[in-house]
Amino acid sequence: MSRLSTMVIALTSALALTSGAAVTASAAPTTPAAAATAGSTVPATADARVEPVQWTPCNPDPSKPDPKIYDCAVYPVPLDYAKPYGETIGIAMLRRRAGDPAKRIGSLFMNPGGPGGSGYLWATTARFQPKVTERFDMIGFDPRGVARSKPLRCFTTNEEATSVFQRMIMVPVTRTEVNGTLAATRDFTASCTRNAGDLIRHMSTMNVVRDLDRMRRAVGDKKLTFAGFSYGTLIGATYANMYPDKVRAVIIDGNVDPNLRLHDGLEYDRQRATGGFEPALAEYLKRCKAVGVPRCAFAEGDTRAKFDAIRDHLRTTPVTLPDGQEVNLSTFTNNVANALYSQTRLAPLAVSLQAVHQVISRQQGLATGGRIDTEAAARLAQTYPGGLREAPADTPYTSDDSYFGVNCQDKPYPSNPRVFAHLARAWERNAPTFGRYQAFDSPTCATWPAPARSSERYAGPWNRRTANKIMVIGNTFDPATQYRFSQRMQRQLGNAVLVTVDVIEHCAIGRSKALDAQVTSYLVDGTPPKPGQVLKPDLDPFPMLTG
After folding, report:
1. Does the N terminus or the C terminus of the chain have fewer Cβ atoms within 10 A?
2. CB-hemisphere CA count at 13 Å for 521?
3. Preceding omega of 443 cis (within 30 degrees of 0)
4. What is the residue extent of each domain of the chain?
5. What are residue 90's phi and psi, to 5 degrees?
6. Is the distance from CB of 146 to CB of 159 less than 8 angstroms?
7. Element (H, E) at 252
8. By three-state DSSP, how is residue 246 classified?
9. Measuring CA to CA, how many Å separate 372 from each of 246, 312, 323, 354, 490?
10. Residue 361: closest CA among 286, 301, 288
11. What is d(CA 253, CA 102) in angstroms, rounded to the nearest whole number?
């Protein structure tokens, strides 16, 4: 997830909080034994008693009949683990009970990434094979500061948020755009100082992992079974090194480079651009050309040259579509990045690119081989929405700012926001599409009001040996977490095996039956996959057209 996604969510959507899951107040105090364990920098691995989770039957989707298999809970954890008897916050949890209770193995905790991704409803997803859901309670949860778990909010109304976010340009080019964006980030962090409260100082991944271990003990599991995706891989890796003797099975899919991320935020972001997004885009354009039209609508001519021409045109001149919608460099770059996250978006992206190419060609008076495809342009307008409707006055702010709350505590950045503007020019030399985009992902952290204390920030070591192997999954052309990150994750961990999937996509579970079978065997039987495998996805991103 990028800061852009965070802004769009903050401006345009309200969280659908299910019954019994919203958490805005402090919960009950923790037990003394649990608090003693939680307060150390790297907690002891010996289990200390915690209060069990108090589950209540619930229906996570009131629009559908109650399946009678779900339970909800709000579990209290210390706000500050250095003050274990102080204020607590509630972690919203959702459980889908194991389909075959007689053969139940334990609980499978899940995190979808972000940081700031809501994992609560992941208990309802069909990402894993039936054999897994039969043997495990599937547990989704919102980490601290996210969605239903005392959301970290830097604003009180949507109007406040809009007044700041609408001044942030995702890919600022001119001096005016850069200065305006940096000024808006300073206003954002000032608002966080006023409104976020004490939670803002306790949002690190280390604290999320402490919470996870409490939940593991509270559901009665002697060891953790966990699946983490994207940023969730950092949660899995951190847990494996803080509690190496409590790992039963950990799957991490779409991996970060934990050592780089926790020691050099800028270099981590630069490598996301140069080693992740840019290679994924290049491979996409290559594969599009190979399958040709009509399977890839953008395949005619030199796909690389056409794409670069669109991008360079948008640096100075937005494109107005036939229906009046505007496409600028920021919306274009962000939507290309988001499309590369999923195979199912690759063919539609080609239609959108071709529509923009035709509009630009018409404007420049070039031959395009026919009229503008107005239907494709209409679809493009949906892909690149123009503008945000102003909300009614005094609308309560219902989103959260956990993306920055976590990143700005985990990832070290310089304290001078101007550094990001200078680096943008250098980065785009090697990453012409995504270098500037990534450089402006985190200037907010330069003025973030709550740097993490050392006791709340786990930065290694990463090589503590777990009793059971960790399953690392990496895609060859993952745009957000490049394949080399997965390779590094496997090498940094003390006992891990890497499985590779040859695909343009972010994360792989659920995209390959061969992979899913190995995931099931690992989770259920404890059989780790063989190293050195390169698997293929099930779907063709450019399917043959019929009819």
Report:
1. C
2. 10
3. no
4. 95-547
5. -105, 135
6. no
7. strand 247-253
8. helix
9. 60, 21, 12, 9, 48
10. 301
11. 30
CA distance 494 to 176: 48
Provide the 8-state DSSP code for 86. Answer: S
Query: What whole-number distance in Å separates Cα of residue 250 and Cα of residue 423?
Result: 36
Query: What is the identity of the amino acid at 326?
Result: E
pLDDT digits (tens, 9 = 90+) for 466-517: 989 999 999 999 999 999 999 999 999 999 999 999 999 999 999 999 999 9
63's CB contacts (< 8 A; 6+ apart) are none
Exposed/middle/buried for residue 494 (C-beta within 10 Å: 0-12, 13-18, 19+): middle
Q: Which two tokens stand for residue 543?
A: 């399917």
Kind of pairing, strands 88-96 and 136-141?
antiparallel
pLDDT digits 0-9 by tens, 328-363? 999 999 999 999 999 999 999 999 999 999 999 988
Helix (H) or strand (E) holding 374: helix 374-383
**Torsion angles phi and psi, residue 182, rounded to 5:** -65, -35
Task: Kindly state the percentage of the chain with pLDDT values over 70.
Answer: 86
At which residue do the structure tokens 């951190």 appear? 238
Instruction: List alpha helices for 395-477, DSSP H.
Output: 402-410, 418-430, 435-439
Rounded CA separation 447/437 (Å)? 19
Tokens 């059971």 sit on residue: 468
Q: How far apart are CA 134 and CA 118, in angstroms?
A: 24
Which amino acid type is present at position 133?
A: T
Residue 295: both structure tokens together: 């399977």
What is the rounded distance in angstroms from the CA atom of residue 154 to the CA atom of residue 402? Answer: 9
Enter the DSSP assignment of 367.
-
Q: Please state whether beta strands 534-535 and 496-504 pair in parallel, antiparallel, or not at all (unpaired).
A: parallel
